[in-house]
Amino acid sequence: MIRKAGFILLAVGAANAAFAQGAGKPDLVSGRQNFEQSCGVCHTKPLITSGRFGPALSKASLGGQADVMAEVIGTGIPLRMPGFKHHLSQEQIRAVVAYIQTLDPPPPETAKPTARTSGERRDAN
Ligand code: HEC
Questions:
Q1: How many helices (H) and strands (E) in the chain?
Q2: pLDDT 10s per residue in the chain (125 long)?
Q3: In whole angstroms, what separates CA 16 from the centre of its chain?
Q4: Torsion-angle region of residue 20: left (phi > 0), alpha (psi -120 to 50) or beta?
Q5: Under DSSP, is residue 53 helix (H, G, I), strand (E, B) or coil?
Q6: In this structure, are residues 80 and 54 in contact, taking their beta carbons and an 8 Å threshold?
């Protein structure tokens, strides 16, 4: 009896794993890896001193529309960003989009406090 229950649990576990992949659920781990490898060089700022060529990406990019994002990633932007449709499969692109949609938008750039904006003037207006 105990053996049988164990077998059933195993079978259910395997079915769940197959479902998670087969149902076309995007793979966030591969999405993140491809994002870091292919997009990070322009879209992230790995060091505080490094610049960033493209905008920071998040769930708010392009109005959060997954289809538009996938289209831009596949086709690219003339002179500014390469297209990835020959480098990544549609499924990989979907996974990258799903990963981007887990990222919160960055806070607005805050000005460094200066003598005028710090101290007693901070509360004045
Ligand atoms: C060579 C640098 C470069 C690489 C590599 C690159 N991008 Fe871009 N990307 C840009 C630039 C620059 C822009 C902004 C273009 C503009 O606004 O004219 C952009 C814009 C975008 C936008 C639109 C953002 C917005 O808010 O308008 C998305 C989405 C995007 N990139 C996704 C990606 C993804 C995903 C990858 C990796 C698969 C990637 N990019 C790789 C340079 C790059």
A1: 5, 0
A2: 455 555 444 444 444 444 444 557 889 999 999 999 999 999 998 888 888 999 999 999 999 999 999 999 999 999 999 999 999 999 999 999 999 999 999 888 766 666 655 555 445 45
A3: 25
A4: alpha
A5: coil
A6: yes
H helices of the chain, in order, are 2-22, 28-34, 40-43, 66-75, 90-100
In angstroms, what is the span from residue 112 Cα to ligand 1's centroid?
A: 27
Measured by CA distance, the residue closest to atom 1 of ligand 1 is 81
The C-alpha atoms of residue 54 and residue 8 are separated, in whole angstroms, by: 51
Distance, CA of 116 to CA of 68 (rounded, Å) = 43
Q: Which of 6, 105, 84 shows the shortest CA–CA distance to 41?
A: 84
What domains, with CATH codes, occur in the chain?
23-106 (1.10.760.10)
CA of 44 to the centre of ligand 1 (A): 10
pTM: 0.77
Nearest to 38 by CA among 94, 96, 77: 96
